[in-house]
Here is the input.
Amino acid sequence: MGNHRPDPAGTERGTERVEAFSDGVFAIAITLLILEVKVPRSPGATIDLLKELQQLWPSYFALVLSFVMIGIYWANHHYVFKLFEKTDHSLNLLNLLFLLCISFLPFPTAVLGSYMLDGSNQTTAATFYAFGLLLPALSWTLMWLYACSGRRLVDRRLEPRFLWILTAKYVVSVVVYSIAVYVSWVAFKLGLACCVGLTLLYLTPPYFPALPARRSVRR
Amino acid sequence: MGNHRPDPAGTERGTERVEAFSDGVFAIAITLLILEVKVPRSPGATIDLLKELQQLWPSYFALVLSFVMIGIYWANHHYVFKLFEKTDHSLNLLNLLFLLCISFLPFPTAVLGSYMLDGSNQTTAATFYAFGLLLPALSWTLMWLYACSGRRLVDRRLEPRFLWILTAKYVVSVVVYSIAVYVSWVAFKLGLACCVGLTLLYLTPPYFPALPARRSVRR
Amino acid sequence: MGNHRPDPAGTERGTERVEAFSDGVFAIAITLLILEVKVPRSPGATIDLLKELQQLWPSYFALVLSFVMIGIYWANHHYVFKLFEKTDHSLNLLNLLFLLCISFLPFPTAVLGSYMLDGSNQTTAATFYAFGLLLPALSWTLMWLYACSGRRLVDRRLEPRFLWILTAKYVVSVVVYSIAVYVSWVAFKLGLACCVGLTLLYLTPPYFPALPARRSVRR
Amino acid sequence: MGNHRPDPAGTERGTERVEAFSDGVFAIAITLLILEVKVPRSPGATIDLLKELQQLWPSYFALVLSFVMIGIYWANHHYVFKLFEKTDHSLNLLNLLFLLCISFLPFPTAVLGSYMLDGSNQTTAATFYAFGLLLPALSWTLMWLYACSGRRLVDRRLEPRFLWILTAKYVVSVVVYSIAVYVSWVAFKLGLACCVGLTLLYLTPPYFPALPARRSVRR
Here is the structure.
């Protein structure tokens, strides 16, 4: 045990730690979502709990949507970091920016849950939520473009065509979320429908690149 | 260190990552439960703290019950994922659905703790809590049935009889929790007693299948 | 990768998973403590923030004390689980009970922070906090006694004298915390002083048993 | 699997566990920050949600600043613990003190976010926040000085000049944060500008020491 210290000079390049830290943030953000669903309270007055619990349905809706989104990003994060051969300082910072956007998501989720039924604020709430979904899509795409440009950090054996497909997919996501933000502002129900639709789309299984097998390595 | 990148083409099948992520959600959900036990506050007025702390006993009761339930699911999750030879996209999604139900549990727990002594809402609170316990049981069983049907993902060496026992156990759980939801609505004390009883039942040690030992593998 | 599934029949005995899960609960409980320090708010009225932040000193005090306690238990947990050769179902349940007590600690911490300066409730708050410290000490000792009795789960190479020293230490802890609960009820300042004193005592380095070295094993 | 228990007598010296626990605290603290951004609520009255969300900009500002700070400390923690050959009891305690300061950060962040626009309290809020940034810098430097003095715990192959550069860097940080606290008290905008400036400075990539490569070791 005493002899296995990694070499200080050459180890910052692996992606394991960044992945473990990111996993932690994903797991915490996804579990914190429930804290924004508040127990109905009405100090001094009697309430009809059943009715109150039913009227919380926008909170349940927002919770499920955000839960699935974070879950999808978690799976994608693993998928993409496996395509990276190494990491560097800039990628770490871009990943931190992405995690900031993920950890921010519980807030627009709570806003949507609180104001989706409030006639005078539901447009704002839906637009803010769509914006909250745009942020991780944007930072994710930035991170990918950085890692991918000049084949800087991605596995050299990957085919250019495969990288182009992923790039196109992520850029289109950003465009569609931008549209969803705009649509939410004009017609909030349609905007939310866009968000739900995109999420359902992302639930389809990812495409795995067929690679010439590398020499099998032991962990 | 630089040479141990796993092969992008062949690694999504292992269950380690899904297990690690699930463990994170279990640990966070189980620890968040305490946040729903609120410090008694009464701005402007004096309170009898001792009495207030005693009157929180429904919150303590709900906390302990949910803590034990999540702990049991955590242990079961490990137990069952060890029976899986691999994972696939659908299992990952079903597991995400299950984790959503686990992370939801602090909410009905808080509702039960807040309204168990409120005469006009205690039935609703108990029924909602029983429903909150039904959800993970249901998604758990769905996940198991998917993995088990056609022996899709489970270890091929497991005896059919052993799989049938587990299947029966999980399906019966769903039925019993459904009954507990109904009973809670009719007689909330009996419904809660069902929930406590089921939990105590689950505390008994799990049955371990005797398998022909596989060739010992080094991690 | 596809071939390293552990054998379902023989792996539940290791302590790694229980330790990892416990570590998660420790890390979360210790970090959640800050959530109970509430930002001073006074809707509609102006406040003197500097004065309010200073008057929160009982919250800071309780935070630091509980943080150190959880940190000590974390270190002790590692220390003791390294003495265990394996785990079993009962130990897992006792560990779960211990984790319940750890995850409960933020609540008495918040109560103490909120009511330590409230003349009519400070005795209750201090006693409740001392009781909150007694609970993990008690469940910890139960866990140890179970693992140790009949040398059930501890490393067989450990000297009986060493085990007796640890047993005595843990039993004495329970006794002293019980006394602290009583003293807090009679004279809350003295009771809190007991709690602080015990914590400082636990900060001394643990004693490491000298063992005949086992054959070095590779992870 | 059954044979890989580490040797109780010789394993407390590795840094893996301390790092894993610290990573957990970092990930939780960084994700909890969002919980301090409260959904605008105004019971009984109608609110202009868009305006309210805009007026939360001090909360967003404080969130981003603290997120980046914790992210930087996380990266630095890995960087520096890789320079350590082993850990000991005192280093563990100093690390615990450092983690206490990190886990405290969400509180001054929330205070700054709540009172940055409140004319009569913004000076207090900014000073408290700068103080909240000074605390981890101080405990970090204490930890480093302990590990470094007499080359107690650092890798023996590191050049003295490299250690001096890091020591100087950390001591200067403490001095600059102390100045930032003072400046915040006199001119809060300038104080916050100091905090932002320091953060941006820390975003530059760290310097990696060139070491004679150690014999490559397998994990």
In short: Residues 1-12, 212-219 of chain B have pLDDT under 50 and may be disordered. The two ends of chain B are 16 Å apart (CA to CA).
